[in-house]
Design goal:
Elements (H helix, E strand, L loop, with lengths): L6 H13 L46 E5 L2 E6 L2 H5 L3 E4 H7 L1 H7 L10 H9 L2 E7 L9 E8 L6 E9 L4 E11 L4 E11 L4 E9 L4 E11 L4 E8 L5 E9 L5 E10 L4 E10 L5 E10 L4 E10 L7 E10 L5 E10 L5 E9 L3 H9 L4 H17 L5 H14 L3
Parallel strand pairs: 1-5, 4-6, 5-7, 6-8, 7-9, 8-10, 9-11, 10-12, 11-13, 12-14, 13-15, 14-16, 15-17, 16-18, 17-19
Antiparallel strand pairs: 1-2, 3-4
Helix pairs in contact: 1-5, 3-4, 6-7
Length: 410
């Protein structure tokens, strides 16, 4: 499948395709997904979409930095003139390959390697849509940049998407991403996000994932953080289908920082396996992980928190906390902390727990007149609030709360 790509991009795609039979699946500890349907090659359907997803366009704000993709098509794109004049780029990845080839070629698949495993190779070989965001040196963007990426499951078409974000030296931005499925046909999703924070860059990255029940998905988000740069992640894994996810930060520059906050809710018979990794390659780098999850019915949620301090990363700090609330005796939750320390002069620690809603908290709230259901929902909202409050747009915060309430049975 070709999308009017330049020769170098075609060569990358061909290389990735050739690697597929030689590479293994990634390892997500305590999650068996080798039989999942993750390699759907129907990536360019001839079917006519019913365009249900276009309803999202009716609520869009004008003059906000925003890109909307429905299936493989970009259906809405806007960037204020003030940002265009400063050299900011927000566009479809294939358009960027044609119009900004040197920028894209210099950064594409430099954070997530094509030959890393079978799923990363598949993404590059069968990629059928994507986003490119570039913020030049010293440019500070106050307004959140939003992308709405809609899977079109009203037709048979895989969702193979690649997002590339480059924040140049001393730039600052806030990026908000929504993944959502329209339709109920069985499809797959393979999503790779590469975020590059060059020296001194500051990035706030927020995501709300709401892929559908019939979607088996692989989501890989990874940042490379250079000297004195910072990426703060806030991710809501609120999908309805089976998902494996990799949320990683590579701290490669001295004084680099990354805080990763993730919430997840699993319901029904759903399985979600989430690896969250921070790797301290550089001196005085700081990587913190906070993961909170809720499991219901007969579902499974696994949090693997991985902190790795590489030899030579003196003064590094790696901390993690993973906690899971069980709302059903038939559900299964894992909070699996992994610390790999190859240097002496460092700070590291972890906390992990799987348990039920605190009875004392429930009793206190019920003594103030709340029903047990309302009290339980309030406790859970507070439990998940660490991530919700990090979402930089109030309407997205409200949407996340509404999704959580819906999943909890409101």
């Amino acid at each position: 499948m070709l999308k009017q790509e330049p020769e170098w991009a075609i060569a990358q795609r061909t290389q990735a395709y050739g690697l597929l039979d030689t590479l293994a699946l990634p390892i997500i500890e305590r999650v068996k997904f080798n039989r999942w349907h993750l390699f759907d090659t129907m990536i360019d359907s001839d079917e006519q979409s019913d365009e249900t997803g276009y309803g999202v366009l009716t609520n869009l704000e004008h003059d906000k930095p925003l890109l909307v993709q429905y299936g493989t098509r970009t259906v809405f794109e806007q960037l204020p003139t003030s940002l265009v004049e400063q050299g900011v780029i927000l566009t479809d990845l294939f358009t960027a390959m044609q119009e900004y080839p040197e920028l894209v070629q210099a950064h594409l698949n430099t954070v997530v390697a094509v030959d890393e495993d079978k799923l990363t190779a598949f993404n590059r070989a069968y990629m059928n849509s994507g986003v490119f965001l570039y913020v030049p040196k010293n440019v500070v963007i106050e307004e959140p940049i939003q992308t709405i990426l809609l899977q079109d499951s009203s037709i048979q078409e895989a969702f193979v998407k690649h997002v590339l974000i480059v924040a140049d030296v001393n730039s600052q931005l806030t990026y908000v991403e929504k993944l959502e499925t329209f339709g109920n046909k069985k499809n797959t999703a393979n999503i790779v996000v590469e975020v590059i924070a060059k020296d001194g860059a500051k990035i706030k990255y927020a995501a709300v994932d709401r892929l559908g029940e019939q979607t088996h998905a692989y989501i890989n988000r990874r940042g490379r953080i250079q000297k004195d740069a910072d990426i703060n992640w806030a991710i809501g894994a609120l999908n309805d289908g089976n998902v494996i996810a990799d949320f990683d930060s590579d701290l490669v520059g001295t004084g680099s920082t990354s805080h990763v906050k993730v919430i997840g809710i699993s319901t029904g018979k759903q399985v979600q396996g989430i690896d969250t990794r921070v790797t301290n390659y550089a001196k005085h780098s700081v990587g913190h992980i906070l993961q909170h999850g809720v499991i219901m019915d007969k579902s499974t949620l696994t949090f693997n928190g991985i902190g790795h301090i590489i030899k030579g990363a003196k003064g590094a700090d790696a901390q993690q906390e993973s906690r899971v609330l069980m709302l059903s005796q038939f559900a299964r939750g894992d909070a699996n902390p992994i610390l790999l320390i190859d240097e002496c002069d460092v700070t590291a620690g972890h906390a992990a727990s799987v348990g039920q809603v605190d009875e004392e908290q429930l009793f206190y709230l019920m003594s103030r007149g709340l029903s047990q259901d309302d009290a339980e929902k309030l406790v859970i909202r507070g439990f998940l609030g660490a991530v919700i409050t990090e979402i930089p747009m109030r309407d997205i915060q409200k949407e996340m709360i509404d999704v959580i309430d819906h999943k909890l049975g409101e």
